[in-house]
Amino acid sequence: MDDQIIENIGCLLLPNAGPLKGEAMKELPVRHQAALAVKGEQVVWTGSTEEAQTRKAHQRFNAEGKVVSPGLVDPHTHLVFGGSREEELALKQAGTAYLDILKRGGGILSTVRATRQADEQFLFEKARSFAGRMAAYGVTTLEAKSGYGLDEETELKQLSVIDRLNNEGLLDIAATFLGPHAIPPEFKGREDVFLDQMIDLLPVMKEKTSAAFTDIFCETGVFTTEQAARFMEASQRHGFQVKIHADEIDPLGGTELAVQYGAVSADHLVAASAEGIQQLAASDTMAVLLPGTTFYLGKDTYADARRMIQAGAAVALATDFNPGSCVTHNLQMIMALAALKMKMTPEEIWNAVTVNASHAIGMEKTAGRITVGGQADLVLWDIPNYKYLPYHYGVNHARAVWKRGRLIWERREADVFPIS
Ligand code: IZC
Ligand code: ZN
Fold first, then answer.
1. Partner of 199 for a Cys bridge, out of 105, 147, 188, 234, CB 3.0 to 4.6 A?
2. What's the whole-model pTM score?
3. Which ligand is nearest to the CA of 327?
């Protein structure tokens, strides 16, 4: 006896095992008129709706001919922070650049002040409410970074929030220590001293948190490639896998550095060089693209996803949800931007937010695919076919979301107006 059967699925998305590189991203196997069965936390069977009639279940769910996909994976977020930065919108409208706001002590540093002041329970409840909204948009696994403390106490506070949220079980969360996210004002001119302090925190983070990754903001006026190299080397020595905010605004060579150090992901890559993209394609490093950030910063040039895929790189997509450069937790919106601004195809986009995203955060064993025996993280979408999602943008198409077989979100019946 199954616990649940989802039947009458118009189109069941079954991404291949990854990481999917280049051409392989174009393949998105689907099954029409499908059904699947869940027992406990696992998918135990997939087949046709007809075959499902012979199976018994405690509960049956009629997908009404719509699309079912693996739960989405958001592999780059800054989920835990105090305060908000809506006051900076006027500065942006007046033409002040993101890095100039930071240079004046605003931006990330403004969020650092608010996060240091906030107590842990407050941060926990705030992050939990964001995570809940992400789940309502179809995300069942995500990555979350520290980086708004820049000191031991606050970085631990953020990572403790991430661990508590992960243990609560609504979503699976991969934790990343992003100590070198900005230079605190008191370390101006002594950047290397600050970086040494962050390196000294690595064993503490290893011991007291579940962070498996470290990350560094390698950018003009923040950390140089030499400093990023030093931090990545130290991180690996302490048993972390490394990630890097690379070539987001200026082409510093962060992409090449990520490849050189075998980073699990290189994120942003808007200004990645042609040579960097070639190296990426020949490596195991996932390109995590964040078009929501380019959009939110009002820029015209997006990461060159087409060139990356053509070169043979593996591409994932993420929100970059944070209070400054991309204030949205709607990964569906990012999927639309990937189509409209980076010319990714629907098949590439679905692979980029499922199987490839799971590889970017080391969660490929539990997330990003639908397999018999695999974790039942599923989304029922209120769309007639999978190409429809990136086409109809800015709204929530999720109808129901399951995490480990548990229905964690469902749109109220009263909210459902059929699209003819
Ligand atoms: O708070 O501005 N880019 N870090 C690097 C961010 C954006 C987050 C922020
Ligand atoms: Zn980021």
1. 234
2. 0.98
3. 1
